[in-house]
Amino acid sequence: MDKDSRNGRPIGTGDEGQVFIMGTNNQSRRPDRRWTTKQTVSLVSVVSAIIVIIILTSVAVWYFAGYLQEKAEESHEGNDEKVPRVYTGYFKLKDMEFVPELESRSSMAFNQLSWEIHKKIKNAFTSSSAFASYYNVSAVTAFSQGSVLVYYMVMFQVKKSDLELLQSLLSVDIIREFLMSELTRDRMTNHGVFVPSSLTIYSSDEKTALLIQSSCSKTIRVGSSPVQFTSPGFENDQYPPNSECQWFLRGSPGKQLQLNFQVFELEDDCSQDFVEVFDMLIPAKNKSISLECGKQQPGSLSLTSSSNMLLLIFFTGNQHNFRGFKAKMTQLPASKCGNVDLEAVEEEKNFTTPFFPSHYPPNTQCVWKIQVKAGKRIRVVFSRFELEEPVEEDVCIKDYLEVLGTRYCAEQAIFAVRSVGQTLEVRFHSDDFLTSRGFLAEYVAFDPDNPCPGKFACRSGLCVPTIRRCDTWNDCGDNSDELDCNCRSNEFTCGNRNCIESSKYCNGHDDCGDGSDEACNAGSTCTDKDFKCLDGDCVKKINPECDNQPDCSDNTDEENCDCGMRVYQPTRVVGGQDAEKGEFPWQVSLHLQEYHASHPTHTCGASIISERWLVSASHCFQEGGKDPKLWKAYFGLHSQNALDDEEVVRHDIKRIITHGSYNSWTYDFDIALLELESPIRYTYQIRPICLPAMTHNFPVGKSCTITGWGSTKERGPAARVLQKADVNIMNDTLCKKLMDGDTTHRMLCAGFLEGGIDACQGDSGGPLVCVELPSGHWFLAGVVSWGEGCARANKPGLYTRVTTVRSWIYTNTDNEV
Ligand SMILES: *[C@@H]1O[C@H](CO)[C@@H](O)[C@H](O)[C@H]1NC(C)=O
Ligand SMILES: *[C@@H]1O[C@H](CO)[C@@H](O)[C@H](O)[C@H]1NC(C)=O
Ligand SMILES: *[C@@H]1O[C@H](CO)[C@@H](O)[C@H](O)[C@H]1NC(C)=O
Ligand SMILES: *[C@@H]1O[C@H](CO)[C@@H](O)[C@H](O)[C@H]1NC(C)=O
């Protein structure tokens, strides 16, 4: 069986892919380069007519011709490095018939026509005194229907020191006008038909220069049945280094293409290896709908085109070669999301962005008009929302949802909107750039006098189950479910959150209504399941420790309970992926200095159990991780990019104690203790987790939380923020079956049978914690250990069951914890 320790690769093999909280949120994989490149269109405004442009073009071209001459006369100073400037675009040839052969880059028709047009483009630039010395190479890369649309690329090489001066000459507007006038002026051609009626040009990333003459080009056409294709070397599980490949993907007119990646395994660094998909047959920055690297869950990445073509490009650096990708392309009928009228409904109904949870297509507008019966109102709950595009100053100008005059964009936790009357209009807009997964919305008619029958009505408009009230989680989004939760000091807090007078506690009468005020007697006849007080008495109550009720006559069940509490109130909703600062104050990030690495990097997680001790997983400290000196422990850390924040504290490790029975094949007894060089000082953001008693019961189905740092490594400064996810404790019998019998009693299973994007994992050694109510104390139920893959269906995550190693922890911390 293919067993993955949760730190990805064994220690000592370099480059860690430790954490793996999978979620809906993949935006962090995008490098920042696309946001930072702003086209500087210095001379031209949109409306000023072509005349102005033509004048400017001639002036600019004339000016630069003069400038060049001067330059040539000057002596060459130094050896100035040249940089490529790449442009790509398309134009329409009038009165020319499209023949299917033009789709195939190896056909005679393609070669003839592309050569003719290429010669004209080349000639235009090389005979211009302004452009000649910068022009490097150009090519006609594809044709498509529409009379004939011609797709082309051009590259210039410019000295770095000249770039600023040439900014206006090399602006897209000047080049467009120049090329257009050159191509229309010269009607003397072999075919006599090369008169473009319109011409569009975009700037393209420097890297795409390599595509102009790439021999790694393929055209793939999809018909009624899907087609599959793979990256080069896929059959050998390794793509070659230094590749630059492109796939021209085509479908029938009037259809949309959908690409689903069934395998996607690339290096984590998008500046080295990446796949980028464009909503046209050219690699224009403006048309990029997604740039991806790293590993993706099989099938989780799907992209959709707005028309019947896509360009996929694949670049690899000179090292770290992975498996690559396998993609399935399907042709879909054009999405119908415009002007849908949803009729008066009583029942709930869902609607989504087109093709959800695949990426929605670019250039899409949808309007939903919802109407309900008179007297009713409409509530729309957006349970998944990801319209991820760069937004400046909170203004949604690119892709957005608009409802009641407000625009929503970026990633949002669950939220609701309510109509004022019986109708509501919801609009969705996507531009022609970057797409994401979109939203899933559910609408329901409600009675304004009773907006949430049987549920708690949040101020935010959401309805949450009443059991979610006062559970320390902000389920409403505005925290309104966590207000007014505490009983007064002279009151007893019942298991069901009722408050009763303290004097009624243990009075022989069930005052709470759930018996919690009467589960109080300590006695001396014990079973294995009972909590044992230090004086030998037993408590016949489930999980009596730290529940704020003294159960032992010696009070030992309520000692050492300054743990598992968060000081602040989280402000976000469960289900969001990023943790809030201080939300999991016991989380530790362990950085390992590897042999060949320049500095230590996050490798495993751990949990604070006392001022001197941390608990983690044994498998983190094998081979290259045995030496305590190689590790640094970070406390109060939120983002891996903010190690220097003032609330972050770093400590050295004095001693690593791995479990004597740890088995590196089966991951049995995967537990370790780390003794700190010096004790930590607790703060709001640094606090211990409660260790459960040996008898503590974490029932099957209980929802618990895992935390860890994502492994997405990126160029840019994007935050590598602590991730959280909820998982359910699973049935051991079932788990053993699912894991082919490879589990032991020391392992606890958690996750979801259906797997999927919302079931996530934390990193090795990190915590699986569960909250006990009503006390609100969090307990360490498990330590992230292993699993098969990540978030796969029927493959839950495995955690070291802390209750089974509780006494080992006690003994090995010198009876301290
Ligand atoms: C194009 O640029 C490359 C370097 O990137 C250079 O080797 C080549 O000579 C140039 N070709 C022309 C025609 O300028
Ligand atoms: C490409 O995007 C830039 C920046 O968003 C915009 O100014 C420019 O007009 C776009 N180009 C075309 C041809 O649409
Ligand atoms: C709407 O979507 C939610 C979440 O996926 C699902 O639980 C619910 O059953 C769906 N409702 C309908 C009517 O499809
Ligand atoms: C676990 O599942 C088995 C059968 O699949 C069942 O017999 C057992 O009662 C379940 N245990 C719990 C605690 O739900």
Largest sheet: 6 strands, antiparallel, barrel
Low-confidence stretches: 7-54, 569-576, 711-719, 756-762, 789-793
CATH architecture of the largest domain: 2-Layer Sandwich
Number of helices: 6
**CATH fold call of the largest domain:** Alpha-Beta Plaits
What is the strand arrangement across the widest sheet?
A: 38-39-40-43-42-41
Q: Bound compounds, please?
A: 2-acetamido-2-deoxy-beta-D-glucopyranose
- In whole angstroms, the N-to-C terminal distance is 36 Å
> What Rg, in angstroms, do the CA atoms define?
32 Å
User: CATH homologous superfamily name of the largest domain?
Assistant: SEA domain
Q: Mean pLDDT across all residues, rounded?
A: 80
Total DSSP E strands: 43
What assembly state would you assign to the polypeptide chains in this entry?
single chain
Approximately how much helix is present in the residues?
Answer: under 10%
Strand composition percent: 25-35%
CATH class value of the largest domain? Alpha Beta
Number of domains: 5
* Structure classification: mainly beta
The backbone outline, from C-alpha atoms, is globular
Structure commentary:
The structure is a single chain. This protein has 5 domains: 45-68 and 75-211, 2-Layer Sandwich (Alpha-Beta Plaits), CATH 3.30.70.960; 216-333, Jelly Rolls (Sandwich); 339-451, Spermadhesin, CUB domain (Jelly Rolls), CATH 2.60.120; 586-676, Trypsin-like serine proteases (Thrombin, subunit H, Beta Barrel), CATH 2.40.10.10; 689-803, Thrombin, subunit H (Beta Barrel). Mean pLDDT is 80; it is low at 7-54, 569-576, 711-719, 756-762 and 789-793. It has 817 residues and is mainly beta. Helix 2 packs across helix 4. Strand 30 and strand 31 (538-539) form a beta hairpin. The protein is 9% helix and 32% strand. The strands form 10 sheets. Strands 38-39-40-43-42-41 form a 6-stranded antiparallel beta barrel. Strands 32-33-34-37-36-35 form a 6-stranded antiparallel β-barrel. Strands 6-8-13-10-11 form a 5-stranded mixed sheet, with no helix packed on it. One 2-acetamido-2-deoxy-beta-D-glucopyranose (NAG) binds at residues 348-350, 383, 440, 442.
